[in-house]
Design brief:
The protein is mainly α. The chain has four domains: about 45 residues; about 60 residues, Endolytic murein transglycosylase (Dna Ligase, domain 1, 2-Layer Sandwich); about 100 residues, no CATH class; about 130 residues, no CATH class. Helices cover about 50% and strands about 5% of the residues. The chain has a two-stranded antiparallel ribbon with strand order 1-2. It has a two-stranded antiparallel sheet with strand order 3-4. The radius of gyration is 35 Å and the shape is elongated. Its EC number is 4.2.2.29. It is a single-pass membrane protein. One of its GO terms (biological process) is cell wall organization.
Length: about 375
């Protein structure tokens, strides 16, 4: 009888030992699970921290190239963040959006911004809030409407660190021309290489005021900026061009004539109607600026003998538009080319004050000539 209680004690003792071992095992498992979770959490947290920290750094701290970013009216933070990421100005739209929210940034201004990939999130937010570029450019370059490629080269070299010759060498090089054709195949097409074209990129450098943040930008950077601006200004008209089966080259060529002839927005639209009416009638355009471009020189007055120059750009000797632009047209001329006035005018001339006078018939045109031109030379 005494052995039975002893056996029970031994069994209970054995069970206690087993339970202790189980507890130790469970504790070890819990310890390792917690350790693994902590390690994963630390690694994950560090990875997230590293990702966010990297996403808040400038995309390219050394970049000075200006990126044009358009923020439409009514754009919210989500839309603006996506636009900035698409333009390559920020690394992550999501991180930028949350960063702005954490900093209680809102009330951004719609408009067109010249931003760079070297700007920090704070600089970008400041620009979007104030409607101005936060960084101060090293210099600005203003290209007025109506300048030729040669005139742009002269004006640019006066501000930049390269010469006029270096500018012209680049814009007339086959490599540069092919590069832009490859980059913008829907807008810069083989038309710029047509026979009799003087300069392939004539008309493709948009007139505007450009900020540059590098004191010595390269020729390539400057021309890239101007060509990019032309493309951005052509894009809104692509639907019209497709509908009318016209090309960007046609638009830039037509707009360049308006730029050289017009003195006001209303004149551009009316002169556009004159040119369209003349082409519809099979009449040559007979616009003096094309003669001057053909001659390659500036004159205060075009002479009768000048009108006879044999050149593809001379619209007195050739019907239709010249083979390419004769100058670099601005936004108003581009708009007038696609939205001309509806008139029956076939003639116009400018008086000594630059005021244009329009006529439907040749007889009316002769009267205008006698009153506004001939009488001034007596």
């Amino acid at each position: 009888m005494e052995k039975e209680p002893q056996r029970k004690k031994e069994v209970m003792f054995q069970r206690m030992l087993e339970q202790k071992e189980e507890v130790r095992t469970v504790r070890k498992i819990v310890f390792w699970i917690v350790s693994v979770i902590l390690v994963i959490g630390i690694i994950g947290g560090f990875s997230i921290y590293t990702y966010i920290k990297g996403a808040l750094k400038p995309v390219d701290p050394d970049s000075e190239k200006v990126v044009e970013v358009v923020v439409p009216i009514g754009s919210g933070l989500d839309t603006i963040s996506e636009i900035l990421e698409k333009k390559g100005v920020i690394k992550s739209a999501r991180v930028f959006k949350y960063y702005a929210k954490v900093n209680n940034e809102a009330d951004f201004q719609a408009g067109t911004y010249g931003l760079t990939k070297s700007m920090t999130p704070d600089e970008l937010l400041q620009s979007l809030k104030t409607g101005v570029v936060y960084r101060t450019p090293a210099f600005t370059l203003t290209i007025p409407e109506g300048l030729t490629l040669d005139q742009i080269a002269e004006r640019t070299s006066a501000k930049a660190s390269f010469t006029k010759e270096e500018f012209m060498d680049f814009v007339t090089s086959e490599d540069a021309v092919l590069r832009y054709m490859t980059k913008y195949p829907d807008i810069i097409t083989e038309e710029i290489q047509k026979e009799n074209i003087r300069y392939a990129l004539e008309g493709y450098l948009f007139p505007a005021t450009y900020p540059f943040y590098d004191e010595s930008p390269s020729v390539e950077e400057v021309v890239d900026t101007m060509v990019d601006a032309t493309v951005q200004n052509i894009i809104p008209f692509q639907g019209f061009l497709e509908e009318k089966e016209k090309s960007a080259h046609w638009l830039l060529t037509f707009a360049s004539l308006l730029e050289k002839e017009a003195t006001s927005k209303a004149d551009r639209e009316t002169i556009a109607s004159v040119f369209i009416n003349r082409m519809d009638e099979g009449m040559p355009l007979q616009t003096d600026p094309t003669v001057l471009y053909a001659l390659g020189e500036h004159k205060d007055r075009v002479l009768l003998e000048d009108l006879k120059v044999e050149n593809a750009y001379n619209t007195y000797q050739n019907k239709g538009l010249p083979p390419g632009p004769i100058a670099n047209a601005g936004a108003a001329s581009l708009q007038a080319a696609v939205e001309p006035s509806k008139t029956k005018y076939l003639f116009f001339l400018a008086d000594k004050d630059g005021v244009n006078h329009f006529a439907k018939t040749y007889e009316e045109h002769l009267k205008n000539k006698a009153e506004y031109i001939d009488s001034q030379h007596k």
